[in-house]
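Bit of a strange request maybe. I'm writing a small parser for structure token strings and I need a real example to test against, not something I typed by hand. Could someone generate the tokens for this chain?
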Amino acid sequence: MADEFEDGADLNALLQAEQSAPPNYGNNPASSTAPRQPAAKVQQPKPQTLPPKHAPSAILVSKRQKGNPILSHIKILPWEYADIPADYVLGNTTCALFLSLKYHRLHPEYIYSRIRGIAGKYRLRILLIIVDIPNHEDNLKELSKTSIINNLTLMLCWSATEAAHYLELYKSSENAQPTAIRTQQAQSYKDSLTDFVTMPRSINKSDAASLISTFGSLQNAINAQPEQISAVPGWGERKVRQWCNAVREEFIIETAKGAKAPERGATRALEDRTVTRDEEEAMRLAEAGETRANVPEDTETVHDAGSHDVGEDEGMSEGLTAALARLRENGG
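Reply from user aminoacidic:
Good idea to test on real output. This should exercise your parser:
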């Protein structure tokens, strides 16, 4: 019995020791004390730049245009038939509709159905019209209004060769930069000086170089006498005259087309000087009365006129009195 109680005491001691010991979840005791590593971030794929979509190098022609004489005049650029809503496709955002005024006079509804077919599909839409009738003013006026409403570019031509040239021009200018039609600005002082000297029509760049090399500076060239300028190689009488006129004429200052509004004080003075209708009538009657008073009276004429002159004088007096009374009322 004593042995049994001793074994029970040892068991209780082992249980207490296990409960007081820290838990061990892994085989490696150092793994429980190591700090946790942050999770790696998900790498998103970068979007790839797609190559630009190039338009075909050839002019796309609708099968509706078979037999059109324009096709025989397109010689600079290639063309091919394609299933397209427009008559001609000249680029990714450019198309053209062809119309003959002779056909339009017979079928006026045709062009409107074709315009509805390309609505919202191209940025630049060209209406290429060939003028093949004598009296075309009314038809062109109608088509111009239609082009404005439907955002079309109206192009007129008078032959198949001209129409083909327009198509080739639009296609060849598809990828042209705006700098092609932009004025070239001078990049250096020499270029600016050459542009200034060549402003007169007959003076070219060689003449500008000769002028500057002879006088050394622009100031000396401007102050030089015509006899001295005529000694410059390549400068004749006409060039000398145009140069002297260009650098010695006075500057013309253009005045504004609209008249300047008068100031407040000037407006008030103008109102004070304004004569009303009653004042004008009173002044006219007064002037007429003074004129009659200055005229010498002839005794025989007065007797012959009789009561007619008296009535006229009385009427004039009454009119003058009434005008002066209205003037006093308005002034008061």
